[in-house]
Amino acid sequence: MKNSIWILILFNLQFCFAQQTSKISGFVSGNGQKIQAANVQLVGTNQKTVSDSLGYYIFENVTGENGKIQVTSAGFKPVTQRFSIINGQDLSLDFDLEDNENQLNEVVVSGTLKPVKRLESAVPVEVYSPVFFKKNPTPSIYDALQNINGVRPQLNCGVCNTGDIHINGLEGPYTLVMIDGMPIVSSLSTVYGLSGIPNSLVERIEIVKGPASSLYGSEAVGGLINIITKNPTNAPMFSADYFTTTYLENNLDLGMKFNVGKKTISLLGVNYFNYDQVIDKDKDNFTDVTLSDRISVFNKWNFQRNDNRLFTIAARGMYEDRWGGDVRWEKKYRGGDEIYGESIYTKRGELIGSYQLPFEEKLMLSFSGNVHYQDSRYGTTSYIANQKIGFLQLTWDKKIGRNDILAGAAARYTYYNDNTTATKNPEKTWLPGIFVQDEITFSPKSQVLLGARYDYNSIHGSIFTPRFAYRFKANENTIFRLNAGTGFRVVNLFTEDHAALTGSRDVIIKNDLKPEQSVNVNLNYIQKINFGNGTFMGIETTAFYTRFSNKIISDYETDPNKIIYDNIDGYALSQGISINIDLNFPSGLKFIIGATFLDNKNVQDEISERPFLTENFTGTWSVSYKIEPWNLLLDYTGNVYSPMKLPLLNEYDPRNPNSPWYSIQNIQFTYTGWKNFEIYGGIKNLLNFTPKQNNPFLISRTNDPFDKNVQYDSNGKVMVTPDNPYGLTFDTTYVYGQNQTIRGFLGLRYTLK
């Protein structure tokens, strides 16, 4: 009996210890501040709480020894952390949340040339992080931009696949492309400059839609794209990213960081892309996609200095060998008239840097230079071009009371020469300028920006570009911004216009060409909505209006033996409205949805005409969902475009004068459960769309690419013959989208921090 009593006592004690409860408490913070109203839950139970005004949370009467706590808060990434309770002791557990990659308060520099939170910038700036581009991996930044609302990579040649970047329907020369804030990518080489930048070294991409010439000068007429590379100090020690497709496109990105002494950190990146498969699925005996062998090396250095003054310098070299054309083409046919091919050799070197001068005042000296050499053969046409650009800028940044002043002086030198009859002597252009900007803060809710720039072009003379912006913060979740400004683009006639390169036409400049100019007004509205359960929605809407004057047009139709250049006798308009929506659920489901409605037209002699290759509507989306138990991330991305006016050769051309509605959609699965590794794969172009659909052909007369059997009448017009029933010549300009069918891809990433 005595033993039974002791057994009963021990059993009761064991039961009591088993039911012993503990407290778990701690703080929730993010961005260095305590987070109020964060949702905190004991996973697998009904116990929930929210953090107080100091970011503090507490759970009473927690039973068991092991468990998980999940914390969610609007604008931050959800965090789940395991815990263990030892001997019934109370537990202190803090959480430091990271910004969601689509959060509106990213720090940006492109709008005002100084770092500021996106919501506090008077100028609207869109920000895209590497996380966004990983949702649809591509071999170049040029291709990656296809999922950004209002931005469209446009192919301009169905054989060589060269192209440019359209912002709000405006052609590539109106977009300024920069690397680390330097105008390193010229209009001649936009497509080449955006190819070969290792995606693994990109910190973020900032996009400003609308003129920005008051800060950046020439070419920032329709907008700018600023590719910001990683700071070597914060970059991982080593990263590698390789993927291939069922087309056998192979892309490799490598990044590595190393210390050179105690005060110098270097970041080295290498990108290699190879595609050498001759594929002709549309059965026209021409390659569907240009073949390419490209390597790019990028090296960035940061030097530690007294008082944390900045000194960084970076260099990039790129070489590419690409060709497209007749599937039988080999290099021995380069430049000949036996088998048609378009072969392009590109060599490019770039240097950029920033140095903060050793004075009490904040004086920053920035510089860049690039050399672009191109050796091309378009059938028998030779195009050999050499372009050099040097840029130097000094800025002074000073806060005086309510005024935040930025002033600077800049100089740009451009050298261009080619072997065409259009360029008899090398073009050498100087473009010095001065600018000033003042951000005036009247109250925490009201801010005004005033800016102006004066440039002197050595050919065209003086150019003045003012700027105005107003920001009103109604509350923490509602912001209005009004922006107005002007832009300009100096004359740059000869890029890769195939018709201008034939050498068979005389180039006629009808009048003294004036720089193209634009006036822009846009109204921007941002609304943040916190639903209280961890769900967050951000809405950004922009209405824009841009009017161009002095637009330069090229006339190939008046005289078949001449190219006539002149400023438009009228004006051009680009107007519309765009909307972006970010929607994040605590479950890990995320939506990024964008739409742009466009109305672009050229008005000349009171006749309004819609430009070629300009859509009226663009839609983009990205849907992501993380399945935590499986460590699996699902990404579904895509875009949709309304019909565009396409260039036909004559009234008999059987090709469709307008593109159809079309959409490119992709799906990707990423497994993250393997330490330091990510395995990803999926399908691109799910709908299997190609431009050939509903068209008899894309490239006209591929059976006679040298026009040997084309007959002309006495006026130089192509005649209709039994061999040429539509009266066409060989033409590669009828192209509006990528010509690759549905395909799979598979990749592997490794990151060592």
From TrEMBL:
GO MF term set: siderophore uptake transmembrane transporter activity
GO CC terms, sorted: cell outer membrane
InterPro entries, per database record: Beta-barrel_TonB, Beta-barrel_TonB_sf, CarboxyPept-like_regulatory, Plug_dom, Plug_dom_sf, TonB-dep_rcpt-like
Sequence ranges assigned to domain TonB-dependent receptor-like beta-barrel in this UniProt record: 269-686
Main location as per UniProt: membrane
Domain TonB-dependent receptor plug stretches: 119-223
Membrane topology: Multi-pass membrane protein
Keywords from the UniProt entry: Cell outer membrane, Membrane, Receptor, Signal, TonB box, Transmembrane, Transmembrane beta strand, Transport
First and last residue of the signal peptide: 1-18
GO BP terms in the entry: siderophore transmembrane transport
Subcellular location: Cell outer membrane
Domain of life, per lineage: Bacteria
Listed SUPFAM superfamilies: Carboxypeptidase regulatory domain-like, Porins
Pfam short name (any one): CarbopepD_reg_2
Family of the protein in this entry: Belongs to the TonB-dependent receptor family.
Protein name (database record): Outer membrane receptor for ferrienterochelin and colicins
Gene source species: Flavobacterium defluvii
